[in-house]
Design goal:
alpha+beta, 5-stranded antiparallel sheet
Length: about 550
């Protein structure tokens, strides 16, 4: 305990008043019972093994939270399984984050996890503000000592803290911004939670250009200098500079509401005629921006690109016949349709596309005479894999050149293809107009950055046929139910992406209505029309 500190136990509440050290008052509510110091170790030298007892979990959590709340970082760190990493973060809670009071209230343990709430006060250069949040810790048995210890994770300090990141309070490193949509409506994290990571990135990159002044804040400083800081608390607002975005408040609101229906959902909407991003939403809403940075197989939504390639090569026409057997073998790898359906040989390519027939696409791979044909189409026509400058960090898709069975898997959006909702929305936008327009979330005029451009466009004939097969999918194909509530000139494509070790496929869906394209993915959502479809439809209804 630090010199000058006085300790008392009042009604089950541990109270420490630090004398003259500038730490103020730390409390920890123990929920009744003895609030004495850390238990002494057993006199026995025997190392305990086996599952943790309830008392071990409760006492270890209580002792740790008590030491942390009292500002004794060394004592708290000793109660974890990673003392050397824990102590600097615990010390920084007071010294770097300038937390001057903290009341930590443990909840009821669930197994080895103990939830708790933190009601803190942050003070910096005469400015003081309350700060509340909830987190949890887990108790484990030490590998060598057998003692019950807190399993150290950065989230013990704060639920959004990541490996290598730190909490800080001070004058913000960049000026505040007031982001507005393309109509001038203010966009904030409270109203649009999914925009949190996006707005943080925009502030980091464009704060100095927007004409504002910094405020005083508590933030998470990322370990990677390329990542934006995350503001957690504002003690004093700076003067925000206005930042124009391409977003649409109505489409964004619809996207936020739609993704809340499904855990692991992401959606992006793009304006085909300009590339303007109209909405970005994720569930969960904070942290990783999966809608723009995710990397996973997009399933049959990629058949839009495959269809464009086949149409360009003259291997199919929208109304021409195409074989769709129940299954097909290609270079030792077997492929089949959902529920092993097949279509009569007289069926058109439109029917195969609208019904999402896998075999119809794979049977044509040899006719391209180029295993890398899809990879070239992705880059040269759809802009996939080019260096997109959206205004925030994004993954720009990948369709690597493959051969054999792996190339066949790519034709139906499996194998080594990697996409996110932004990429698939852009593919649909390109199909809609025939020309790739790199998606942007802030106007190019803001900083004059060089946007990616594809080397060629689709011909009007191919573009018309591509729109035609997508319209059929929305009218009577696999996208019919999801798109029934969407008006205007509309088209769609469903997708179900199989993932190794995952019992249920990821649900993908993309569609357009007039001059708006959108794409969504729902992790383990099953068929594309069941989960991702309603998400896309909600955004298209709001924004088109």
């Amino acid at each position: 305990m630090r010199s000058g500190a006085k300790v008392a136990i009042v009604g089950g509440v541990f109270v420490l008043v630090a004398g003259g050290l500038g730490y103020g008052v730390y409390d920890v509510v123990l929920g009744g019972g003895d609030a004495g110091g850390t238990e002494t170790a057993s006199a026995s030298s025997e190392v305990r093994t086996g599952p943790l007892g309830k008392d071990e979990i409760k006492d270890t959590a209580g002792d740790f939270l008590k030491a942390w709340a009292s500002g004794d970082a060394s004592a708290a760190a000793l109660l974890t399984n990673n003392e050397s990493v824990a102590e600097p973060l615990l010390t920084g809670y007071a010294e770097d984050a300038h937390v001057t009071e903290a009341v930590i209230t443990p909840g009821v343990a669930v197994g080895t996890k103990v939830p708790y709430t933190v009601k803190a006060t942050v003070s910096y250069e005469g400015r003081t503000k309350p700060w509340s949040y909830s987190s949890e810790l887990s108790v484990v048995r030490g590998l060598t000592t057998g003692k019950a210890l807190v399993d150290w994770q950065p989230t013990v300090i704060h639920p959004q803290l990541t490996e290598g990141a730190t909490l800080r309070t001070g004058e913000s490193e960049t000026a505040a911004v007031e982001a507005v949509d393309h109509n001038g409506k203010v966009l904030d994290k409270e109203t649009y939670p999914s925009l949190g990571p996006v707005l943080d990135s925009l502030r980091e990159k464009y704060g100095d250009k927007a004409g504002g002044s910094p405020g005083v804040e508590t933030w998470i400083e990322a370990s990677d200098a390329q990542l934006p800081n995350t503001t957690l608390l504002t003690l004093a607002k700076g003067k925000p500079g206005k930042l124009q975005t391409t977003l649409d408040a109505d489409a964004q609101a619809a996207a936020e509401k739609a993704v809340k229906q499904f855990s692991g959902a992401s959606v992006v909407a793009v304006k085909p005629s300009t590339g303007a991003i109209r909405a970005v939403a994720n569930n969960p809403a904070t942290g990783f921006n999966a809608a723009m940075q995710g990397k996973q197989a997009p399933g049959s939504t990629l058949k839009i690109m495959t269809a464009a390639m086949l149409l360009e090569k003259g291997l199919v026409t929208a109304n021409g016949p195409t074989e769709c057997p129940k299954d097909v073998m290609y270079q030792g790898r077997s492929f089949h349709n959902l529920d092993n359906f097949g279509l009569p040989d007289s069926s058109s390519f439109t029917t195969s596309f609208a019904r999402s027939c896998n075999t119809a696409f794979i049977k044509l791979i040899d006719d391209t005479h180029d295993d890398a044909a899809l990879s070239k189409e992705a880059r040269d026509v759809f802009g996939i894999g080019l260096d997109w400058k959206t205004g925030v960090v994004s993954f720009d898709g990948s369709v690597p050149a493959e051969s054999g069975g792996e190339a066949a898997a790519q034709y139906i959006g499996q194998g080594t293809v990697q996409m996110n909702a932004l990429n698939v929305a852009s593919i649909t936008a390109t199909a809609r107009t025939g020309t790739f327009r790199q998606p942007v979330i802030v106007p190019q005029s803001l900083d004059g950055r060089q946007l990616a451009t594809a080397s060629r466009s689709l011909s009007p004939n191919v573009t018309n046929q591509l729109n035609s097969v997508m319209r059929a999918t929305a009218a009577w194909g696999t996208g019919q139910e999801a798109m029934a509530s969407v008006g205007g000139d509309k088209g769609a494509k469903t997708g179900s992406a199989e993932v190794d070790g995952q019992g249920t496929s990821n649900s993908w869906f993309t569609g357009f209505s007039n001059d708006l394209a959108a794409a969504a993915v729902v992790q383990s959502g099953g068929h594309g029309g069941d989960a991702a479809g309603p998400v896309v439809a909600a955004v298209l209804r709001a924004g088109s």
